[in-house]
Structure formats: structure tokens, C-alpha cells
Amino acid sequence: MKDRTLLMIPGPIEFEPEVLQALGAPTTSHVSPDFIELFGRSLERMREVWQAPTGQPFVLAGSGTLAMDCAGANLVEPGDRALVLSTGVFGDRFEDLLSRYGAEVHVIRAAVGEAIDFEDVERALRARPYKLMTATHVDTSTAVRVDAKRFGALGLSYGVLTVLDGVCSVAGEEILQEDWGIDVVLTASQKAIGVPPGLALLVVSQKALSVWSTRRTKVANYYADWEKWLPIMTAYEKRVPSYFGTPPVNLVAALDVSLGQILAEGMALRFERHRRFGAACRAALRALGLGQVPTQDGHAANTLSAPKYPKGVNGPDLLPRIREAGAILAGGLHPEIRSEYFRIGHMGAAKPGDILATIGAIEAGLKACGHEFDLGSGVVAGQAALYG
Ligand code: PMP
To answer: What is the mean pLDDT of the segment spanning 133-152?
Structure first.
């Protein structure tokens, strides 16, 4: 039997063979002509994927948290006021992060599973001036998606810099960074970007760069300082070798391949494919009688789902059985509801067949745990949403 279990957690995910081949190819010098070319091309491709023609891409060795740290370190100075919109664990992370750099942070926190109330946000923006506002496009702890377009528009109308954590959304959920006026859209490689963990990726608007360039104080984080990295990114894009810290050569080669595949699929089709994946999973879970953490489909993510365990079933019993049936899923993450739900990632290279196989494995696990439902009803509902 094939020894392969589908990895359907919300990152890392299943990766395309060509991406893994690039990762496993002999490592070249970071100043060799072929690497300079593919690094430069990756930066150009990021602009297209982010849909930010005048944005400045940054590629750093690190995880998504470094991308968050990089945005915070460069844009916050002691005493700045920051507004954090939080829909879960990763939104909350910005509160601690921004305050480390001396920001006075105000948090608007949605109840678990609820959307952000933009009326509250607007009230806060009207009441006091803020330099910066953050939102988590898809909070991976709740599967709640924030209206990123509205977030950008509010930032523009109140003159506040906007930072969108797109770790669980970039290249999966629709983002038009420049049209929507979002100043920083950041992500990590291991989710819908489709590259194994290890890259922190950001695209920064010219406006945010000009605010950064007029800082009164030095950036307190040495490694993440744009002063170090901006000349490097600019040089590689001009196909000129440059060095500050050794780039993760193989990961950048893999990024180039994956971004090429993403653009070949086309952004609109890619967003639509993810929308269908999200709809299929939600429909299947509903057919199986499972509740979900997002309180409404309208603000439920398309890149992951967060089903609740049905009555009488718990994670330690269910998840290993789903794994035996062929799919690795993730447990709960949000501390308030950790033992009440699990998480399914459905993004990046996933195929419709992977979604249906995962639903089938969930059915097998639920059956083995004694949950009552019509066997096959989840797959039927998923098929209908995918192909109906
Ligand atoms: N933000 C979001 C929305 C995430 O899902 C994650 C990781 N799951 C992070 C930030 C942090 O990324 P990393 O684990 O790569 O540091």
C-alpha cells in the first residue's frame, strides 16, 4: 500500500513535486548568476501575486512570525499608537509584538468565531489618532476571515498605516493589495504560497517605506531592519549580487518555482478554486452534523475549516482515526475552545480529490467513534459544492 498520508493541516501543506525538486537541487552560491536571476524573478513575481505593482517585496529567512516582527519593528516607534483587530490567537500576537517596540496598543477583539465589527473600528479611529492598524486576514485559530478590503479602505480614509497578516490567506484568499490600499501584506512560505517552512515574505507600500524612512529612532531589531534588507532586495531585482545575511538559497529557488505555478494558474482562478474548497468543506461538515467555529459562512475562511467535535466524540479519539483513514488534520488552537474543535487546511496545491479524500477520512473517523450520520453524505455534499 502507498505509504502516504495527506497532510491537510493549516500549514505546512502538501507541496508540488517541482517545488520539492528545487528544494532538493544542489545548492548554488548566493551570488551565482542563476541564483541572482531566480531571486530577482521571485521578487517580481511576488508583486504580481500580491497585486501590488509599486510595492516593495522582502524575502527573509524565517517564519511568519518574523514577517510580523519585521512589520512591527520597522513601522513602530516608542509612543506610537496602534490599533489591533483580533479574531484569534494570531491577532492577539500583534498586541504583545507591537508593545515590545514601545507602541501604545488598543485591541478590538471579536468573540471567538465572530467577525470584527467595523463600526467599532471606525468609532475607535474617529476617537483617537493611530499610526498603525493590524488585522489577521484569516486567523488560523478560529478560521474567521476579516474583510481585508474594508480594512484597507478604513486605513486610507483615516490616514492610518495598515498591516495585514496574510499568513493563512496570501495566494488563497482574494487580496488586491494596491487597489485595496493595504500598506503591508505579509505571509510565510508554508501555506498557500506552497513552499516548505522557512521564508518570511512581505510586500510593503511606498507610503509605508516613506514613513519608515523618516523614523526618529533606529529600528530596535537588527536582523529585521529594512535598512539592511532594502538594498539587498533592490540589488537582486536589478540582477546585481549583494549580501547582508546569507539568503536561504534552496528555499528561494523553491519560491521561484511555486510563484511561477501560482501565476500560471492565474490569481482569479486560484481564488475561485479556494472559494470552492471552502464551500465544499463547510457543506460536508454540515451534512455530517458538525458545527463550526465561524458563526457565519460569510466570514468563514476558504483556506481552512474549523469543525467542532460532535457530541460524544473527542480529539484524541477522532484525529488518529482520521489519520489512519488517510488524512492528517490539526487539533484546536484557541485556548478558550481548544478541546472543542479541530482544523482542516485546504489550500495551495490541494486538488479537489484531496478535499474529497479528506472528507471521506473524516467520515471513517466519525463512524469509528460512534457518531451517527449517513455514510457518504459528507462526500456527496462536498461533490455538490465542488462540481454542482
Ligand atoms: N499568522 C497566522 C495567521 C498564522 O496562521 C501563523 C502560523 N500558523 C502565524 C501568523 C505565524 O507563522 P509562523 O508559525 O510561520 O511563525
So the answer is: 98
Question: Can you give the pTM of this predicted structure?
Answer: 0.98
DSSP conformation class of 339: G
Task: State the DSSP H helix or E strand holding residue 136, giving kind and residue range, or none if neither.
Answer: strand 132-136
Q: What is the DSSP letter of 198?
A: -
For ligand 1, atom 9, the nearest C-alpha belongs to: 64
Burial class (CB in 10 A: 0-12, 13-18, 19+), 155: buried
C-alpha distance from residue 271 to each of 126, 173, 186, 378, 380 (Å): 33, 6, 17, 23, 23
Residues pairing with 81 in the sheet? 104
Closest ligand 1 atom to residue 139 Cα is 3
Residue 165: what are its φ and ψ, rounded to 5°?
-80, 105
Query: CA-CA distance, 207 to 55, in Å (whole number)?
Result: 9
**Ligand 1-lining residues (CB < 6 angstroms):** 11, 63-65, 90, 136, 139-140, 165, 167-168, 188
Over the stretch 184-225, which tens digit does the pLDDT of each residue have? 999 999 999 999 999 999 999 999 999 999 999 999 999 999
How are beta strands 161-165 and 132-136 bridged, if at all?
parallel
How confident is the model over 270-317, as pLDDT tens digits? 999 999 999 999 999 999 999 999 999 999 999 999 999 999 999 999
Q: Are 346 and 8 in contact (CB under 8 A)?
A: yes
C-alpha cell at 296: 457565519
Neighbours of 245 (CB within 10 A): 12
Pocket test residue of 92, 167, 173 for ligand 1, highest count of atoms within 8 A of CB: 167
Q: Which three cell numbers stand for residue 219?
A: 529600528
Check residue 171 and give left, alpha or beta (phi > 0: left; psi -120 to 50: alpha).
left
**Would you say residue 134 has pLDDT above 60?**
yes
Q: Which residues of 175-188 are buried (b: 16+ CB within 10 A; e: fewer)?
A: bbbbebbbbbbbbb
* 292 Cα: distance to centroid of ligand 1 (angstroms): 21
**How many Å apart are CA 171 and CA 43, to the nearest integer?**
15
344: β partners: 305
User: What is the per-residue DSSP string for 228-275?
Assistant: HHHHHHHHHHTT----SS---HHHHHHHHHHHHHHHHH-HHHHHHHHH
The rounded Å distance from CA 370 to ligand 1 centre is 34
